[in-house]
Specification:
By secondary structure, the protein is of the alpha/beta class. The chain is built from five helices and 17 strands. A hairpin with a 5-residue loop joins strand 7 and strand 8.
């Protein structure tokens, strides 16, 4: 594609068996706002974001990633992308049409190379949002999503070819090879990353906080709540963002972050960061060391939604 049709990450939709417990977590201690609910589906917004919602929860028999939604610049761009994906033999789940989710809009869904459901939408009505205030330790917006793939280079190539993602940086270990590719659709260092894992799954969701103080206050609130912390607080090298990772009630990894790097795309050249050097994982040196237990938690469960479109 010669023109970048995608603009930003909109929302991530999760299905879980214990719906009430999951909803209590995200609309409670995690700091999102429930804006709509209907028959076992809830829509959760971030107070600082114009997106109608950034997380959708659905009650289901099995835990799965329902879909990842990206914004497009226009409805014409949605149509163009659908045509390009069809020409590239990508399997569409639906044709471009009006959406009936909060805020409406115009969009369609398709499977990525690993079988995840991806949605692209434009012309969604902006939500009335507000400025998150000083010391208010709630998410401002959805920052990025990280996906586990058994072949990160094939997944990277697919997103580059079909959705015009661009590589920002790579993390590797000399004796193991490449472990993670950071991918962007704007000057934000990454809205998605692809991590090497034993199966297709969600690795983590990341939520942007107002600033360092709010990030630390939020981290403290989660710790006091008894939520399971697996890694952090610290500051990554790739993306230069802060991190603290927790588990939600169904074992999905969720992150508080802030200050994700913005790039000059005209001059940026990707780096390869060697993870045997601890400062490349955590510049500050304040986080507990990355180990196999943390990696196993981030591998998550096998995604039962691969090449199975969500019912809604």
């Amino acid at each position: 594609m010669t023109n970048r049709l995608l603009t930003h990450l909109r929302h991530v939709d999760l299905a879980v068996p214990d719906y009430n417990k999951q909803l209590d977590f995200y609309a409670g201690v995690w700091g999102l706002t429930k804006v709509a609910e209907d028959s076992g589906i809830s829509f959760l917004a971030a107070e600082g974001s114009p997106e109608q919602y950034i997380v959708r929860l659905r009650k289901a028999d099995e835990k799965r990633l329902d879909l990842i939604s990206y914004g497009a610049a226009s409805s014409a761009g949605v149509d163009t992308l659908a045509e390009q994906l069809l020409a590239g033999e990508v399997q569409l789940i639906s044709q471009p049409a009006k959406l009936d989710s909060p805020g409406g809009g115009y969009g369609f869904r398709f499977f990525d190379i690993d079988g995840r459901t991806i949605e692209v939408a434009a012309d969604v009505e902006a939500r009335k949002h507000r400025r998150v205030e000083e010391k208010e330790a709630i998410p401002v917006r959805l920052s990025h999503v990280v996906l586990n793939s058994t072949d990160i280079n094939a997944t990277r190539a697919w997103y580059e070819q079909h959705l015009d993602f661009r590589l920002s940086d790579t993390m590797s270990i000399p004796h193991m090879g490449e472990l993670m590719h950071f991918m962007r659709i704007s000057n934000q260092h990454h809205s998605m990353a692809i991590a090497r894992g034993p199966h297709t799954s969600l690795q983590h969701l990341s939520f942007e906080m107002r600033g360092i103080d709010e990030y630390m206050r939020g981290t403290g609130r989660l710790l006091r709540s008894g939520a399971t912390k697996i890694w952090g607080p610290g500051r990554h090298m790739a993306g230069d963002n802060t991190f603290t990772y927790f588990l939600d009630p169904h074992g999905n990894t969720v992150e508080y972050t802030t200050e994700l790097e913005e790039l000059d795309e005209d001059t940026w050249h990707p780096h390869i960061y060697d993870l045997t050097k601890p400062e490349n994982a955590d510049q500050w040196g304040t986080a507990n060391p990355m180990n196999e237990m943390i990696a196993k938690e981030m591998h998550n469960d096998v995604d039962r939604g691969v090449f199975v479109a969500p019912p809604v």
